[in-house]
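Propose amino acids for all 75 sites.
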């Protein structure tokens, strides 16, 4: 299992590479989205940095991240 930092690094590398596998990249996004509860102050910068590479088919993940930030800020 990848850490959130590793997932973000993989997404960045696959998104920047001209030959990045679209399905693998999509799977990385889905994996990142499924672990939204782990997003906190220690890793949010990495998550935000890769959001520039998000594709339209996984835009819903942006809403998940925003929701998690709102929940986390109430604690």
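Proposal:
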């Amino acid at each position: 299992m990848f850490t959130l930092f590793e997932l973000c690094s993989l997404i960045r590398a696959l998104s920047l590479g001209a030959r990045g596998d679209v399905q693998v990249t999509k799977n990385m996004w889905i994996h990142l989205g499924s672990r939204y509860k782990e997003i906190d102050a220690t890793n949010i910068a990495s998550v935000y940095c890769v959001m520039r590479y998000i594709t339209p088919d996984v835009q819903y993940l942006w809403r998940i991240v925003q929701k998690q930030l709102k929940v986390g800020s109430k604690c």
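The chain has four helices and no strands. The first helix runs from residue 4 to 16.
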